[in-house]
């Protein structure tokens, strides 16, 4: 017969944070698929005149691109101004060398993991780095978009992003770096999913499901 193990249950992610996570996930997957298709439009024969497929794929890329921009802005606002400071508290660990040592040691099964907020320092710095890449993708994507749509939103994007072409030297370079940086997301997703599952097992807590349910739970007695 199994005995119930006492668990603690903490609310860590609000509904809006969870919605943003999954919206961003959907947008990034769609951007990767459509982006690589734009780079290599294999469904249309070489020299063929069927541009409709490319048009729809570009359309899906732009829509998901604007979703990513909106979620990035919303998430930046929530990071600084949300009522819960569970994310902001993690900065304390980032600036504390002891917390880095504790986290790295705990990953090698030496000692416990003590976090001030919801993220460990290595995790926080990784997410911050990814945010910078997302900002680059949004700015370079808007610069590419503005060179096709000169009016309306495209026109506004051009005024904001003109410097990008000057900085990189050409539109071709912007496109090249927009393409190269896409690989960061593929590497990130693989490592992120692996680490989410692994830390759940290692630290006996509700790692993956917390971004669905919002709750973290773990046995009262932890190692
Ligand atoms: C995770 C984010 C993103 C990824 C992985 C991604 C990926 C890609 C890739 C691989 C290409 C093809 C580049 C090439 O031709 O070699 C591309 C093109 C493009 N992307 Fe993105 N992108 C992202 C975000 C965005 C955003 C936010 C926008 C703007 C709303 C955007 C707008 C564009 C445009 C306008 C093109 C050029 C399409 C063309 O040449 O016809 N992208 N993207």
TrEMBL record:
Keywords: Cell membrane, Electron transport, Heme, Iron, Membrane, Metal-binding, Transmembrane, Transmembrane helix, Transport
InterPro entries: Cyt_b561_bac/Ni-Hgenase (IPR011577), Di-haem_cyt_TM (IPR016174), Hydrogenase_cytochrome (IPR051542), Ni-dep_Hydgase_cyt-B (IPR000516)
Transmembrane segments: 21-40, 60-80, 124-144, 181-201
Domain Cytochrome b561 bacterial/Ni-hydrogenase residue range list: 13-214
Gene3D superfamilies named among the record's database cross-references: Transmembrane di-heme cytochromes, Chain C (1.20.950.20)
One GO term describing the cellular component: plasma membrane
Example GO biological process: respiratory electron transport chain
Membrane topology: Multi-pass membrane protein
Major localization listed first in the record, in broad terms: membrane
Compartments, as annotated in UniProt: Cell membrane
Keyword Transport assigned: yes
Single GO MF descriptor: iron ion binding
Alphabetized Pfam families for the sequence: Ni_hydr_CYTB
UniProt record similarity statement: Belongs to the HupC/HyaC/HydC family.
Name this protein carries in UniProt: Ni/Fe-hydrogenase, b-type cytochrome subunit
Species name: Paraferrimonas sedimenticola
């Amino acid at each position: 017969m199994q005995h119930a193990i006492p668990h603690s249950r903490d609310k860590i992610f609000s509904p809006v944070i969870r919605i943003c996570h999954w919206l961003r996930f959907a947008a990034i997957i769609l951007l990767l698929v459509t982006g690589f298709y734009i780079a290599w439009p294999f469904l249309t024969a070489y020299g063929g005149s069927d541009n409709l497929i490319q048009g729809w794929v570009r359309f899906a890329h732009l829509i998901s691109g604007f979703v990513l921009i909106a979620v990035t802005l919303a998430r930046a606002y929530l990071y600084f101004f949300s009522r819960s400071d569970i994310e902001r508290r993690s900065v304390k660990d980032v600036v504390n060398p002891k917390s880095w040592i504790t986290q790295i040691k705990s990953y090698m099964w030496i000692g416990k993991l003590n976090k001030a907020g919801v993220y460990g320092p290595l995790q926080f710095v990784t997410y911050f780095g990814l945010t910078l890449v997302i900002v680059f993708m949004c700015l370079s994507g808007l610069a590419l978009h503005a060179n096709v749509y000169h009016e309306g939103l495209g026109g506004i994007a051009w005024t904001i992003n003109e410097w990008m072409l000057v900085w990189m030297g050409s539109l071709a370079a912007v496109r090249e770096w927009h393409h190269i940086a896409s690989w960061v997301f593929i590497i990130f997703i693989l490592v992120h999913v692996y680490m989410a599952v692994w830390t759940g097992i290692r630290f006996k807590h509700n790692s993956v499901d917390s971004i669905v349910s919002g709750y973290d739970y773990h046995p009262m007695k932890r190692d």
